[in-house]
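notes to self, project folder thing:

trying the whole complex as one job this time. last attempt i did each chain seperately and stitching them together was a nightmare. two parts in total, labels are on each line so i dont mix them up again. if this works i'll redo the older ones the same way
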Amino acid sequence: MSDSYQSFEYDVLVIGAGGAGLRAAIEASAAGCKTGLVCKSLLGKAHTVMAEGGIAAALATVDSRDSWQQHFVDSMIGGNLGNHWRMAQIHAQQAPDRVRELEKWGAVFDRTTDGKGNINVRHFGGHTYKRLAHVGDRTGLELIRTLQDKGVHSGIDVHMECTIYALLKDGDRIAGAYGYFRETGRPVLFKAKSVVVSTGGIGKLFFINSNSWECAGDGFALSYLAGAELCDMEYIQFHPTGMVWPPSVRGILITEGVRGEGGVLKNTKGERFMFKYIPPKYQGKYAETEAEADIWFKKVVIDGVKEDTVTERKPPELMSRDVVARALWNEIKEGRGTEHGGVFLDIATRRSAEDIKKKLPSMYHQFKQLADVDITKVPMETGPTCHYMMGGVKVDPETQMSNVPGLFAAGECAAGMHGSNRLGGNSLSDLVVFGKLAGEHAAIYAKKLKDFPKVDDAQLKGLNKEMNQPFENQNGEVSYKILANLQHIMEKGAGMFREEPTMEQCLKDLEGLKERVKKVTAEGNRMFNPGWHVALDLRNMLAVGEAIVRAAKERKESRGGHTRTDFTGYSKEFAKKRVVVRKKGAGMEVIREDLPQIPKELEEELVNAHMLKPEILKQLRGEA
Amino acid sequence: MGKVHLRVYRGNSEGGQLRDYEVEAEEGMVVLDVIHKIQATQSSDLACRWNCKAGKCGSCSAEINGKPRLMCMTRMNEFKEGEVITVMPMKTFPLMKDLATDVSWNYEVNKKIPPFTPVEGAVWQWEQEDADRVQEFRKCIECFLCQDTCHVLRDHDKMTKFAGPRFFVRTASLEMHPLDALDRTELLKQEHGIGLCNITKCCTEVCPESIHITDNAIIPLKERVVDKYYDPLRILWNKILGK
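result (full assembly):
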C-alpha cells in the first residue's frame, strides 16, 4: 500500500455525525468556519436514531410547575451528585431553547391535546414532572433527520463512511486527524485548526449491549492517545430493559417509554417487585403500594389528569435506570427470572391494543418481527443491557474544550453532565445543548489561529504502516474472535457488579488481548473490509476497556452506574472526587480529583427541591 | 435450527459471482445474523452495512430471494427447511463491494429539496391531527428500498430526471407541514419528474415502515402539480388576469 493520501483542510473538523456532531457542525458553519463532518456510517444512520423515548427539557407545556431548576435537581439526584454541577445547570437552562429550535428547523413533535397544541411531554424515570418532548417512540430519528436536513443546507462538507485512526498534534495543540475511507481503504488527512469529537459510546465493549458496531469508543481512545484526560469512566449505564430472547436480539433496547405509558415489571411469581427496591433517595416520591400506583396510572396516564392535582405518587417502575437495573438483576439472581434470564415487562394488560400500537409503534413492530411476540397480548421478557457511558473526555463546561488546546468533545464521549447515572431523555438534550456549545467554541478557537497547525509527514507514514499491519501479519487470529473475547472479559470484569479480584483479573486478560491484537490478521485487501476495520477498532476498544477497569478499581464505593460488591455504600471521601485517567509514557495514570464545589445558590435549589428530603443529600455525600 | 444455506453475492464494480455458505444457525436468527456469522467464521472481508439491527436505521438493505428487504428484519424461520437463501446487493445502485452499494446519489437529490422554511410570524401551536399526517412521512428510515424497487430508477435508470419515492415522501413532509411557507411543485414537476411515476405502488409494498408512499405522498403531490399546471379553469383565470 502506498503512502499517498487524500487531503482536506477545515477550520473546524467534527468527528462523528450523530446528534452532537451534527449540531456542532451546524453551529461552526453558521459562525463562518469552513467545516468538515466525518461519519463512520452513511449520514443519518448514527446511533442517535435508536433513541426512543424523548428529549428532556423543562418546557412546562403540560405541568406548569416545571422549571430549569427542577430539571437541574433531578439530573443531579439522578446522577447521585457525581455530576459537574455547571454542566447540569447549563443543560437544564438551555435544553428548552434547543428543543424549540429543532421545531423551527422542521422537527414535528407530538402535540398536547389541551386545545393549545404545544409540544407534548411525557413521563420518564427520575424526572419529577412530565418533561420529555417526543415523537412516538422514534424521537432520535426525528432529531437526527432534522439536524441532517438542516446540516446539508448549511454548507458543511460531509465525508461519509470514513474512520479516523488518530488525532494529530502540532506541539501541544490539535492539528487535525488521519484515517481511511471505508469503501476504498484509502488514507485521508484532515488538517484542522480545531477538532470536535462526538463519536458516541462504548457499548460494543460488552457482550450484551444495545449499541451498534459504531460504538467502539473511538472518541475516548483518540482523545486519550492525543493526551486528553478522561474522567468518570467507571460510570456505565446498564439499561434495565433490553430484549433477552431470542439470542440474536439479546440486548436490543426496549424503550423506557413502555414504563412511561404504564408498563409494569413482574417476576415469574407474578409479583410487581419494584416496590421492594425504592432506595432512600426516592422514598416518599414514589408509590408504596400497587393500589396507589394504579390510581396514579389511571388518573395521569389514562385520563390525562394534571399531575399537580393528583395526590397519589407515581409507580416505582419510573425510578432512575441504575435503580431499576439493579432490581431486575437481583430478581433474576434470586431465581425469580424467566428461563431466558429476564423478567416480565407487561403493557398488554395495562393499555388497549390500539393505544399500544399508537404510543409504542416501533416496540410493537420490533417484538412482532424479531421475537414473534405480540406485546398487545403477552408480556415482554427483559433484562439489563449495556447502554450508555456517563464518563468521557474531561471538558470545560463553558466551552467543551479538553485539556488539549483545540480539541473539543460533545455528547456521549464527553464527561460530567450525567454524573454517575444518566436520566432517560437527558441524552438527546445533552447532544444538542453541548453540541452547539462545542461547535461555537471550536469556531471561536479556530478563528483565533492565523495559520493551520503543522502536520508531520513522517508521523503519517508511521500511522499508515500501523493501519496496514493486519495485512502484513501472517497466521494471526481474525479480529472478530478477539472482539468476542474482549466483550466477555469486560462483561465479567467490569459489568453491572464489580469487585477487586475480578477487576484485577480483567486487567490481566486485557494485557493478554493486547499481545494478540499486535498479531491480528486481516484477509483480502483494504477495500470495504469489515474484518480489517474491526482489527483497527480493537486498539481503541482495549484502551477504553483498560480506562474503565482502572477507574472502577480506583473508586472504592458504589454510586449509580458503578456498583461494587466489596464497597457497597456511598463513601464520604469518594463523594467529593472524580477519577481521572490519562496517558503517561507507555502506561495509564489514574488520579483522584476534587469534584467542583456546587455554589451556594444551587445548593439551595437542591436543599429546597420539591419533595427532596434533606437527609438524602447527606446520604449521597456519604455523611449519613 | 441446524445448518442453513446462503448464497451471497461477492464482487465489486468489475464483476463478481454468488458464493455458497453453510452456517450453523441458532433460534431467532435474522439474515443479518447469518451474514455476521459468515464474517466472523468464514469470510471476514465480506462487505455489508448495518448499524442498529432493529429496523430503525435503514442500513442493511439488500435483495433477499429477489425481494428488497432489510436483512435485520428478515427472520430465518420464514424460509423452508433446506431452502437456499440468495442475498444480493440492491440492483438500482452501483456496486461498491459485495452487499454494499453506492447510494450517494440519494444524498445529492436530497440537497436539491429546499428545506423547511416557516411562515413569517409562525405560531408554534398546532393540532396532533395535522402532525399525524406529516409524522407518517417522517417515519422514513432512508433504507432506499423504495428507490431500489421503483422501475423508473431500477429498469429505466432515470436518475437524472426522477427523484424517486423516498424524495416524494420527503417533499410531502415539507409541503404538508402546516407552518411551511414554500411551494415545491415546480421542482416536483420539472427536475424531480413526479409525472414519470405511474403509481404501481411497488414502493409502498417494500417500505419497512409501512408508509403509504403512493396513496398519501405521491398521489396528493401529483394532484398539486395538476392543480397548478393543468387545471383548465385556472389556466383560463390566469389568462384573464394576464398572468
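what i see at first glance: The first strand of chain B starts at residue 2 and ends at 12.
need to look closer tmrw
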